[in-house]
Amino acid sequence: MPKKQEPEHKINGKIDVPEVRLVGDNVNQGIYPIKEALAIAEDLELDLVMITESANPPVCRVVDYKKFLYEQKKKQKELKSKQTKVVVKEIRFGPQTDEHDFEFKKKHAQKFLEEGSKLKAYVFFKGRSIVFKDQGQILLLRLAQELEEWGKVEQMPKLEGKRMIMMMSPKK
Fold this sequence. Notes:
The chain is 34% helix and 30% strand. It has helices spanning 34-43, 65-82, 99-115, 133-146, and strands at 19-24, 30-33, 47-52, 59-63, 88-93, 118-124, 151-160, 163-170. A four-stranded mixed β-sheet has the order 2-1-4-3. A four-stranded mixed β-sheet has the order 5-6-8-7, covered by helices on one side. A hairpin with a 5-residue loop joins β1 and β2 (30-33). It is built from four helices and eight strands. The two termini are 53 Å apart. It is of the alpha/beta class.
């Protein structure tokens, strides 16, 4: 049997302090004994909700509790939507990538950085091509140099297994 979830705020009869600071619409703000505050809330057919328990005396608001919860959820959702999500886009090269392919992939990398995404550029070494590590590093450093005005290098080219990886982040 599922347990009933405890409300996150103390409301009405659950408030167990002698006096409270009352705030809210259509209410004379001030410090009231708990019984008087509950009576005011009842007269307005609303709930007495404890907002700040740590204050002295605790702060309570006279509101419709369901509407209060709805507005809080709405605010949290809004804050969450304003957070920026970091997107990492990847571009893969071979150690002997020719000029045309390099330019084509550089244009994509530039577009990714302009969008505000991070860029993970890597050279993948197949089989014995690992002997061309220096060519891979030169390729990545050249890419970084040519994209200098759109992004900055976050991590210099580093060999990890059969990949040489370089990270770039967009300039603000």
